[in-house]
Structure formats: structure tokens, C-alpha cells
Design a protein that fits this description.
The complex is a heterodimer of chains A (about 425) and B (about 170).
Chain A: H1 5-14, E1 23-27, E2 30-34, H2 38-47, E3 59-62, H3 72-88, E4 91-93, H4 100-108, E5 114-117, E6 131-134, H5 137-146, E7 148-152, E8 156-162, H6 171-182, E9 191-195, H7 197-201, H8 204-212, E10 221-224, H9 228-236, E11 256-261, E12 268-270, E13 278-280, E14 291-294, H10 296-299, H11 302-312, E15 322-325, H12 330-338, H13 341-348, E16 350-352, E17 373-376, E18 392-395, H14 398-407
Parallel strand pairs in A: 2-3, 2-5, 3-4, 5-6, 8-9, 8-11, 9-10, 14-15, 14-17, 15-16, 17-18
Antiparallel strand pairs in A: 1-7, 12-13
Helix pairs in contact in A: 2-5, 6-8, 11-13, 11-14
Chain B: E1 3-10, H1 17-20, H2 32-36, H3 47-50, E2 56-58, H4 71-78, E3 83-86, H5 91-99, E4 104-107, E5 117-121, E6 126-129, E7 134-139, H6 143-151, H7 154-161
Parallel strand pairs in B: 1-2, 2-3, 3-4
Antiparallel strand pairs in B: 1-5, 4-7, 5-6, 6-7
Helix pairs in contact in B: 6-7
Classes of the chains: A alpha/beta (about 425), B alpha/beta (about 170).
């Protein structure tokens, strides 16, 4: 029987041909924790007497959620991670280096890898053809120390893409539409694989958005085949040697197939307080906003900043609106500065913050006030997500966020493109 | 641990890990007892004050969706909740709960109301609603996870077996 991408990768990592539903102990190629989850991993490993890492050169501790730290407790949490790293040789990605998932795809994740991370958006690396999945602190801690993890082999949903985007429509709009269609628990426990001829034409930054948000449909992983686009991306990053081609078998078995025509997708917005509460941007038109945020592991990449810059260039942010920009990594930040994007944002009235998670998790850098509304390019809009249960979050593409920042109301980006 | 008994705290669908452990208490993650004072705060602000040892958290669909924070099941366990019952669970929350030794039972929760007295027999696989005089079956926990739970969670499992044991 043919295998899906996920089945192939898991088979490679447990030494036998697997089927959905099998329980396996698999070898882990790379592992990561972040400053919110890592200290608990360290505590568990210390308690177990396992202060060790099997692959220190492929284990990364990211200081990105509270970055720079706004409180002493979190500064101490950072030092717990730095100290474990000093003892074991694992890599620390310091303040200002960027969001874990962006850094993983820039430097560490490879096609065919089995990668675990103590952060739900670890699935982002699936865009490079890795089986990458989020777990808790204990699972990832022991994966770091022992180089292994237990897994149940998931069934796979095939997401078949056809057509091409109309102007002003982006991968974010597609993924919000997919989640709106199948529901926030529609793919619970499944692997989502984005396939079909059109999937091979999608650039990497769009693939990252789709893989990143697969977890918002409940998925365990969200993968693309590793093809020529993947190869070019890795070569551009000076990592050509990390490439291996990877495709599912023609006779692979999918539990379900969903088909989406990109040409039918409109700019889409998730209304508060669930990601699957999606509507076309027209239905959100005119909703007053207090804050507009572009950044995160979903939409803080160079291409996202470029489209936002195109929209705000030569214009001013609406009075009373806070327009926050957080590049996803230092690399993105530097390239955006070289291209002059940051200058445009600042001239328009935007606020640039250091690479990291920014205000997405409600810790710092843009906490909402009571009754305030934020339109954000992030991936979650749960009650309280941005630090205040009395705030509301609408999710959209960077283009929609930028257009809304200019008018002070949720706005169709096509009015500015 | 096989016979659990307590009162129900009832929640709706889509209770996220942000509801259970809000991001604004991120700085308390190093102190589980303090973090637990805010358990489920954004779903029921008074939960942590009212809950008693042995009580049950009962949700609807997709309980525990969102972030991978293991602190979510840990604070629920810290409140001495004996089990979480829901129509369905998000994957990472389910796995984390078993890893920290918190029983999570997938069952039809529509007929269970706040304040009901429940008795759960983990060995027999049955939930008895003592208030309503009803019995509810739950989807069996997969065998390997049942073993993890019986060992007392992942860390205890690894200590006991010297590694993973299927």
C-alpha cells in the first residue's frame, strides 16, 4: 500500500513500514522549546536526572515569547534555559533573534525530518516536508534527553489546491477559509497534506502560512512535498545540502480529500473568539479598530511586510490606531530595513518592535484595553489571547491589517491595491 | 485512583488553553500553585476559588484547543480535579493530560449539568451521574496511554521502565 508523506517520514524514523493508528517509538531529528514551555521541560529533566541532549546541535531553546523580558520572573525563566544550554550544549536563540518557528525553517528544519517542539505552531516546519508536531514540555523534554518520542501514526487528510489567487487574496485568506470550512476541530488528530499541481507552485512563504495554521483545525501536522520550490528556498539560505526530495506515493491512502479553488477565495476575516468563525471581509467592513498588528510565526515574513508597505506607503495610520509591526526574525528585520520597508512603516505612524512573538500571546508589547478591538495577522483570537478577556481580536492577512490601519476600520485591502 | 467522586463544573465548547491558563499570567508559570489560582479564569473567573478536591471539569467539544502549554492540565490537576470530561479533546491537551497523570474522558456530556454529583469508575469504564441516576460510557483511553496514566504520567513511566515501553 502506498504511503502519505507523514507515513513515509514516520516509517523512516521507527525502522518499519507503518499504518495509520500504529503506535511507535520514533527517533527525533530536531527538537525545540520556547521560554514559556522550556523551563518546565528543564525542571522535568532535572527531576529525572537527565540533564542531557542527544542532538545538542539540533536542539534549540528559543527566547521569543517574552522578548525582551518584561518581568523578573520571566528573566529568571530565560536564565533557566540559558543555564541548561550551558550544561548540555544545546543552542539558545537569544532575545531579538526571532520567533521559534521562523528560525526553525530558516536554519534547522529539513525535508524528511521528524521534529518535535513544545509549541503548537511547530507544525510550521511541515512546509519544508518535515513531520513537525507540537507537544507539551514533558514530551519534548524527554525527546531532547532520549532522542525518542512515542507517536500514534495519524490518518491523513489531503487538501487539494486548484486555481490561483485573485489580486488582494493571500495564503492567509485561504487558510482561514479552510479552517472556517472544516472547523476548529475538523482535522483533530489528522495530518493535513497540501497537495496537487497548484501546491507545487506556491512559494515557501505561503506554504508556511498553511502549515502554521493547520493546528487551528486541530491537525497534528501540516505538510507539503519537498520539491523544487523547497530546494530553491534552502539553496537561497545557503542550506542546499539539507534538501531531499520527498513526495507521497501515487497510491497513498487519504482518509478524506478536500478541494479548494484559490480563485474562489476572497479576503477573509475570523471574527472573535474562534479561528473558525470566518466571514468574507465585506461582512466585517467598517468595524472600528484600536490596534492593527502585523507579525508572528504566521505572517511576520519579508513578503508580508512588503505587501503591507505597498499599502501604507506615503499614507498615514488613522488617528487613534496603534499600528504594530514585529518582524518574525532578525534576518527578516535586516532585509526589511535594507529594502526601506521599516522607514515607510515609521513614517506612516507604525511602531516597530523587536523580532519575537510580540503581542500575540498577551504578555507584552500591545496588550488590549477593555472593549478594545485588534485586527491581527496572527493565528489565534481566543478570548483573552492578547492579554485581556475584555478585548476582541479579528484575524486577517497582512494586507487587510495594513488597509485597516489606514482607515481605522476593518477594510478590504483591494481598495488600496 | 479507579473510583473518582465529586461535583461538576460545567463549561461549553472550545475551551482553549488561553481560557485555562491565560497569557497574562505567563510570568507565574514557574510557580504552579500560584498559576493554579487563575485556573480556567477566562471561562469562569470564580472556578479556582470554588473547586473542591475530587470535583470534575466537564466541557463540550474540542476542550483544550490552542497552545501546547502543559501548564493547562497541570493547573487543573493542581486544583485536585479528579478528571476532565468532554465530548472531544484537542490533541495536545489530551496527550499532556495523560503525561501529567490527569484522567481525560471522552463522552457525551450534554446531559451533565453544573453541580451534578458524579462517580467515575476508571477500571469499569463507566460514569455514574448520581444526581440524575444515569450511567454514561466513555471512549476507552488507548491502552498505551492507560499504562502511562497508571504509571503516574510520562516522567514516572520513563523512570520505571528506563525509557519508553510500548
Amino acid at each position: 500500500m502506498g504511503q502519505t508523506l507523514s507515513e513515509k517520514i514516520i516509517s523512516e524514523h521507527c525502522g518499519r513500514q507503518v499504518n495509520p493508528g500504529d503506535l511507535v517509538i520514533a527517533d527525533v531529528d530536531a527538537a525545540m522549546v520556547q521560554d514559556g514551555t522550556g523551563p518546565l521541560s528543564v525542571k522535568e529533566l532535572e527531576k529525572a536526572g537527565l540533564v542531557q541532549a542527544v542532538h545538542p546541535e539540533r536542539t534549540v531553546f528559543f527566547l521569543d515569547h517574552a522578548s525582551p523580558s518584561p518581568r523578573s520572573e520571566l528573566s529568571n525563566a530565560h536564565n533557566i534555559l540559558r543555564s541548561f544550554a550551558a550544561r548540555t550544549g544545546v543552542i539558545v536563540s537569544e532575545i531579538g533573534e526571532g520567533v521559534c518557528h521562523q528560525r526553525m525553517v530558516e536554519e534547522f528544519a529539513r525535508p524528511g525530518d521528524l521534529l518535535v517542539g513544545a509549541d503548537s505552531h511547530t507544525v510550521t516546519s511541515g512546509a519544508l516536508g518535515a513531520f513537525a508536531t507540537g507537544m507539551g514540555s514533558s514530551d519534548v523534554g524527554f525527546a531532547i534527553a532520549l532522542g525518542k518520542v512515542w507517536l500514534r501514526v495519524p490518518e491523513t487528510f489531503k487538501i487539494e489546491l486548484t486555481g490561483s489567487f485573485k489580486p488582494g487574496v493571500f495564503a492567509k485568506d485561504l487558510m482561514l477559509s479552510v479552517i472556517g470550512h472544516i472547523g476548529a476541530d475538523g482535522a483533530t488528530y489528522k495530518a493535513m497534506e497540501f497537495l496537487g499541481p497548484v501546491a507545487h507552485t506556491l512559494p515557501m512563504h505561503e506554504r508556511f502560512v498553511l502549515s502554521n495554521m493547520s493546528v487551528e483545525a486541530g491537525a497534528k501536522a501540516g505538510l507539503f512535498a519537498a520539491d523544487n520550490v523547497t530546494k530553491a528556498y534552502l539553496e537561497d539560505a545557503g542550506r542546499g545540502e539539507d534538501f531531499t526530495a520527498l513526495a507521497p506515493d501515487d497510491d497513498a491512502v487519504y482518509e478524506k480529500t478536500f478541494s479548494f479553488d484559490l480563485g474562489e477565495i476572497e479576503p477573509t476575516v475570523s471574527f472573535p473568539h474562534t479561528v473558525d468563525n470566518t466571514r468574507k471581509v465585506g461582512e466585517a467592513r467598517g468595524i472600528k479598530i484600536d490596534q492593527a498588528f502585523i507579525g508572528t510565526c504566521t505572517n511576520g515574513r519579508l513578503e508580508d511586510l512588503r505587501i503591507a508597505e505597498e499599502i501604507v506607503k506615503g499614507k498615514k495610520v488613522a488617528s487613534g490606531v496603534r499600528f504594530l509591526i514585529v518582524p518574525a526574525s532578525r534576518k527578516v528585520y535586516l532585509e526589511a530595513m535594507r529594502e526601506g520597508l521599516m522607514e515607510t512603516f515609521v513614517e506612516a505612524g507604525g511602531v516597530i518592535q523587536p523580532p519575537g512573538c510580540g503581542p500575540c500571546v498577551g504578555i507584552h508589547q500591545g496588550v488590549l484595553g477593555d472593549g478594545e478591538v485588534c485586527i491581527s495577522a496572527q493565528n489565534r483570537n481566543f478570548g483573552g489571547r492578547m492579554g485581556n478577556p475584555e478585548g476582541s481580536i479579528y484575524l486577517a492577512s497582512p494586507a487587510t491589517v495594513a488597509a485597516s490601519a489606514l482607515t481605522g476600520k476593518i477594510t478590504d485591502p483591494r481598495e488600496f491595491l | 485512583m479507579t473510583l473518582l467522586k465529586g461535583k461538576v463544573f460545567k463549561f461549553g465548547d472550545d475551551i482553549s488553553t488561553d481560557h485555562i491558563t491565560p497569557g497574562r499570567y505567563f510570568h507565574l508559570r514557574g510557580d504552579m500553585a500560584k498559576l493554579a489560582e487563575h485556573t480556567l479564569k477566562d471561562a469562569d473567573p470564580t472556578f479556582a476559588k470554588k473547586v473542591q478536591s475530587g470535583d470534575f471539569v466537564v466541557g463540550g467539544r474540542n476542550f483544550g484547543l490552542g497552545s501546547s502549554r502543559e501548564h493547562a492540565p497541570r493547573v487543573i490537576a493542581e486544583c485536585k480535579v479528579s478528571a476532565v470530561l468532554a465530548r472531544s479533546f484537542a490533541r495536545i491537551f489530551y496527550r499532556n493530560s495523560i503525561n501529567v497523570g490527569l484522567p481525560v474522558l471522552e463522552c457525551d456530556t450534554d446531559g451533565i449539568d453544573a453541580g451534578d454529583e458524579l462517580e467515575v469508575d476508571l477500571a469499569q469504564g463507566v460514569i455514574r451521574n448520581l444526581t440524575k441516576g444515569e450511567e454514561i460510557n466513555f471512549t476507552p483511553i488507548p491502552e498505551f496511554m492507560r499504562g502511562l496514566l497508571a504509571d503516574g504520567g510520562l516522567a514516572a513511566h520513563i523512570k520505571k521502565h528506563g525509557g519508553f515501553k510500548l
